[in-house]
Amino acid sequence: MELLNPDQMNQLHETSIRILSEAGIRVMGSNVLDIFEAAGAIVDHDEMLIKIDSTIVDEALKTVPAEFTLTARNPAKQIILGGNNINFTLVAGPPFVHDQINGRRSGNHQDYVNFIKLAHHFNAVTMIGNQVTAPLEMPANSRHLDTYLANLTYSDLSFHCTAIGRGRAMDGINMMAISRGITVEEMKSSPGLMTIISVNSPRLLDEEMANGLIAMAEHNQPVAVTPFTLMGAMTPVTLPAALAQQNAEALFGVVLTQLVNPGAPVMYGSFTSNVDMKSGAPAFGTPENTKANIVGGQLARRYGIPYRTSNANASNAVDLQATYETMMSTWGAVLGGANIVYHAAGWLEGGLTASYEKFILDIEIIQNMIEFMKPMKFDTDELGLETIKSVPTGGHFFGEDHTMARYETAFYNPILSDWTNYENWESAGSNGALERATALWQQAIQEYKEPEMAADRKDELEAYVARRRVEIGSGEP
To answer: Do 116 and 77 form a contact (C-beta atoms < 8 A)?
Structure first.
């Protein structure tokens, strides 16, 4: 879908270029200043401010790949980012976890592992996000090693590595290479994981984010440059102004990846929404958020860059609000042509909580969307003219050859409604979606099967983690 006409798109682009050339982007880190200065940007070293014009932007966009592939440790589960391909990831980042049995609690390693198992079990999730929940019982400076190891042990999908600084990015690259049985150098020609680089809106790129971006780009691993732009807080309150700022900040990060390594894979990230002007709380799944998801896709297609956005919600509970906000934002992502819908399964409470029951409901939403996106068969056989003619007026089509040959694949069967074996309505049918979701995630954990990994690779991963824990504890990067 396209919400803006060509003239409006040109206005949006030109305003973004004016932001970059007249206001500029402040950075924390002299290495970024040097990179842009070498490219001809106007650099104020005292203010740490960089201004770039359309020439620098246009030259960088020439080398951005329109499509690339991520290869997981299981090559059969590689994903394509770009074009008409869409992928859905596990929720990432919440400090809390919730389920109907144990209630709300701080993130921990066991819950982290459970969510990775769920993501592996349901094929609607095609990539793992960055730390589905933070295992707070573990040291903050090394817990990324434990989450990477869990990603690679309990799943065989590609995953998002943490790029807060160079060290965490390199740990992700090294561990993915080990799991695939290849070298880091070989990973450069076959990317295996990605990260999200957040711009500290308005108009600031901090040092650790920049260093993570540079490390990933140097090793040809993709980054999704994503400004965190909430209307009325980090941007002006109007949607056009917010999108102009988002676009300027995203383009700045995209340009940096190409200055570091021309041709490095990169994604255009959109996370624009609004805040509740009474409380200041972030709001998601709103009409503005949905529109921003769609226009973000228009911008990404204009520049020929793969597109990342999200389908977040702001509800504090797994309720109707959580579902309709997620559905609104998911429609915006799908109609916007997103190649990755980030936080797609399990996000609750504005991103503060990873929810087991919400994960199940989100899987249902994703599966509905997947079915919606499948192309229709439209040939003589599918039109069923002879069957229509053969059934008497007032008759039905149950049992007809046309129906019986297709009944298993004709319609999507929702996972939440698959409760046909219960004896009576009182014991099962009266349960709402929340109760059924609780039973389903428990069942999925029981049915989960760990993917195989060669013993020597598992040993090498565990040895790498042990060594890096010691190095990090001694202050090495």
So the answer is: no
